[in-house]
Every structure is written in structure tokens, then in C-alpha cells.
Amino acid sequence: MSKKSSGLSTAEIFDDLIRATFSCTLVVIIILLSLIVSSITMKLSFFTSNDLIDNTSEKSSVTIWTSLLIYQITIIALIMFHLRTTSTEIVDFKSNSSRVRNSLYKNMYLLLITISITISFTSLISVLFPKQFQYDLHQFHKLLKDASLVPIFLAVAIGAPISEELLFRRYLFKNLSETRLGFSGAAIISTTGWTMLHSSYSSSGMVKIFFAGLMLSWLFHKTMKLFMPVIFHAVYNIISLTYLLFTQRLPSI
Fold it and tell me: Residue 67 in contact with residue 38, Cβ under 8 Å?
């Protein structure tokens, strides 16, 4: 009896390992494919419309943001295709847990709490490490220079929240949390992967991203509603974008 029990436990651990490895690998493959698609599309676009934009700086900004949008759309298409082919619910998934039956008011309360905590923490980090904060601001100001607000808003407020939450919270976090890793292990691994996408940030900026990722995982875990972390992500990005646009117009000291 004990041998049987031990064998079953070993098999379950092996199944969890296979599932976790497959989930992480698929995320990497989807990101790489999306980068390839966006790169090829933008190169083709550059050759066919080389004379449409005369200003080199403006052309560079348009290329960056358009490429980012194509990358995000490709991620959304690939992960939705995978979820549909595996007969998985895309937006919400069923569970016997009472968390699924949380009222809208409770969900909104949790949303406000997580946003408030995250903004407070990131603001504190910015104050404690002003030089690194200024470095991150400078990087974004360069990306915003001469760029149209339309592709910027689409990429920052819509594309990033939907694509990243689908990939890292809806797919990766959910799959890992259903293994022996549980909430903590799944949150740390999925958030680490998400943070690595923001590797151009300073070290303190990476800390802020990691903390935000943990809060997004917690919010999704508590509400079991994908639109909650998507709203969180969108609101946070819009606040950040507004601040960047405002500071970009301030005279340098």
C-alpha cells in the first residue's frame, strides 16, 4: 500500500514537472514567434513605404510602436489559439471555489486595494532611488519623442495589458498554480518571466515591475477574473504614461 502511494506521488510530481516545463517553454516560444513576426512585418513595411515618412526620428518612433503593437497582437492570437485548441476557457475558468462567486463590489474593492498598494510601493522606490528613476524616465522619453499618441496609447493601455495578462497570468500563472507549486511558486515564476521582459529597466525599476507582477497574480488568484488584472495593468500603465507625457514637457534642470 505504501509503495503504491509512493509511486502515485512520484507520478504526480513528474506530471507536475512536465506541465510546468511545457507551460514555461510554450511562453518562450510564443514570445520568440511574436518577435519574429513583428520584425518581419516591420521590415516588409519599411521597404514598401520607405518614402512615406521623411523625418528619420519620426520614422524610428513609428517603427518602434507599430512593431510593439504587432508583437502584442501576435501574442494574443497565439495564446488564444492555444487555449481554444485545448478546449480551455479563455476569459474565466470554472471552479467550485467561492472566490469565483465574489460580487462585483468585492472585486472592485480588491482592484482598488492592489492598485493603491502598488502605486504607493513604486512611488516609494522612486523616491529612494531617484537616479535610477530618472534613468528609466529618460529611456521612455526617448521612445515617446516625435511619436504619435495613437499607437502609444494602443500599445500601452490596451495591447500590453491584454497580451501580457493573457500570457503570464491567464496561461502561465494558472497552469503553474494547479501544480504542486501552488500560488506562491506560480506567482514567483510567472512574475520572474514577466519581469525579464522589462530587462531594459534599472534595477530599482525591475523591483517595481516584480512587485507589480506579484500583485497582479494575487488579484487574479483572488477574483478568478482575467479582466481584473487587465484593468489593473491598463490603469497603472495609463497613470505612468500620463506622468511621462507631463514630465516630457517640463524644462530640464
Answer: yes
- 8 Å CB contact between 242 and 138: no
User: Which pLDDT belongs to residue 251?
Assistant: 44
Distance separating alpha carbons of residues 141 and 127, to the nearest angstrom: 19
Q: What is the DSSP string of 17-76?
A: HHHHHHHHHHHHHHHHHHHHHHHHHHHHHHHHSTTS---HHHHHHHHHHHHHHHHHHHHH
Residue 43 exposure: Cα atoms within 13 Å on the Cβ side: 6
Class of residue 95 by CB neighbours under 10 A (exposed 0-12, middle 13-18, buried 19+): exposed
70 contacts 38 by C-beta, under 8 angstroms: yes
CA–CA separation, 151 vs 243, rounded Å? 17
Which residues, 6 or more positions from 10, have their beta carbon under 8 angstroms from its beta carbon? none
Contact, 202 vs 132, CB < 8 A? yes
C-alpha cell at 160: 500590453
Please list the alpha-helical segments (H only) found in the chain: 2-48, 56-85, 104-128, 130-144, 149-153, 160-164, 174-177, 182-196, 203-223, 227-248
Residues 6+ apart with CB under 8 A from 204: 125, 126, 128, 129, 132, 133
Round to the nearest angstrom and report the end-to-end CA distance of the chain.
Answer: 75
CA proximity to 231, closest of 158, 149, 138, 181:
158
Distance CA 253, CA 248 (A): 12
User: What is the pTM assigned to this prediction?
Assistant: 0.84
Checking if the pLDDT of 241 tops 70, the result is yes
Check residue 45 and give its pLDDT.
64
